[in-house]
Amino acid sequence: MWLFGKTKKKRPMPPVFEFREGNVSVSIWQNRDQKRGPYHRVTFWRIYEQNGLAQWSKGFLLDDLRQLAKAAMRAEKWICHETGQPDNSDESPQPINPASRMATLYKSQQ
Fold first, then answer.
1. Within 10 Å of residue 24's Cβ, how many Cβ atoms?
2. Quick check: is 5 in a domain?
3. Closest Cα to residue 31, out of 15, 50, 54?
4. Is residue 97 part of a domain?
5. Less packed terminus of the chain by CB within 10 Å, N or C?
6. How far apart are CA 14 and CA 20, in angstroms?
7. d(CA 109, CA 103)
8. Structural domain range at position 36
9. Percent of all residues in the chain with a pLDDT value above 70, rounded to a whole number
10. Residues 6+ apart with CB under 8 A from 22
């Protein structure tokens, strides 16, 4: 939309849910797609202190991974609850064979 020669930008929608798991901050966003309809996207940030100031990073250290995993499980549970989808988060994740994963990715790009 043009207003006096300038583009009027839409304000970004705030996250629909936010929480922290230790040093991991989580934001859940709801988006809408013409083909898929509404869907959710999750962002994770590591919060740490440097020189007395709070800092944010998208990178995670070894000590953060357990909190990151817990945060991802909690985000999954929240989205499943909100969308009425079955919550399969109690199932153990299956290990991925890196060779077969790369073969699958290669085939999908051809």
1. 22
2. no
3. 15
4. yes
5. C
6. 16
7. 10
8. 11-109
9. 72
10. 64, 67, 70
Spatial contact of 18 and 27, defined as CB atoms under 8 Å apart: yes
Q: How confident is the model at residue 42 (pLDDT cuts 50, 70, 90)?
A: very high
Residue 77 included in any domain: yes
Tell me, yes or no, whether 75 lies in a domain.
yes
Work out the end-to-end distance of the chain between its first and last CA atoms, rounded to an integer number of angstroms.
39
For the chain, how many structural domains are there in total? Answer: 1
The residues near 79 (Cβ < 8 Å, ≥ 6 apart) are: 28, 40, 42, 85
- Mean pLDDT, residues 3-17: 73
The token pair at 106 is 């290669």
Under DSSP, is residue 99 helix (H, G, I), strand (E, B) or coil?
Answer: helix
33 pLDDT higher than 90: no
